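Reopening this ticket.

The earlier resolution said the output was attached, but the attachment link was broken on my side. Pasting everything inline this time so it's all in one place.
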Amino acid sequence: MKKWVLKAIIQKLISWLPNSHKVNFWFQKNITKGVRLSDDYFGDKLVHAEDHLKHFRTHLPQGQFCSLELGTGWYPVVPIAMYLAGAKNCTSIDLNPLMTKESFGETIEKYQEWFKAGKLEHLKKYFLPERISQLLKIKVAEASYQTLLVIFNFEYWVGDAQGLKDEDGTYDLVHSNNVFEHVHAGVLRNILVEFKRVLKQNGLMSHFIDMSDHFAHLDNSITIYNFLRFSPEAWQRIDNDVQPQNRWRLSDYEELYKQLELHISAKDFRPGSIADLEKIELADCFSAKTKKDLAVSHVHLVNTI
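Inline output:
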């Protein structure tokens, strides 16, 4: 049995269990090794943070700001970067309570380690010196969870982003990192409508989207386009609720943005490999799309309203 098939079966079973997010965390941490705060994981998140800040500071060069993140995950690397960059409020919302005091503290300590090793020099142009100094002084083991949240101006919400409690025009920056691909189409539309409502008129959205088949991250016997072989009915049987994949392509996101009048001001994407795409037989539901569109594997969309 191929690795991706085994993982699909296990995650499908996990999705039917109580507290499925906790079971999935154990599975990914101990079996697939997918949720460790490794140097590679931390570095990848910092690349996202840097790109968010690059576009945001080009748009609004100075001053404090309020940020909202969709999809906290286990390790709040990007919200801490926003705090270091001057955010007076860093809000992050997740559907499940994945972040803990331990994972928050581990993230702080990773920042401390990298600052002391001189690995974050390239980000200091975005970060405030006094906030770097404050971070370096924190003794995670001696601080309570609530104290750490207060230090970083961090509001952690667990709930549905389709119904935010914020007033209109609350945030200067709304951002996410490889979350949209896990959100069903109708839900994503509702979330973006909410984001548009809570974003200030001169604010910015910045979203990274990974459109590759995530099962291919574990199994190199398949390409990142493997999931495009399946009909909607077949994919529904394979897909799961702990890490769903909507299989949307770049044109689908662009069309949704157009419908919602979200004006894309910057778009950076990886074109992928048409040669790899041609190795599979596409499901009929993708036959109307161009190979160029289907092959795009990752995109960073930046927009205003």
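Reporter confirms the inline version is readable. The chain has one domain: 3-10+33-304. Residues 39-59 form the longest helix (21 residues).
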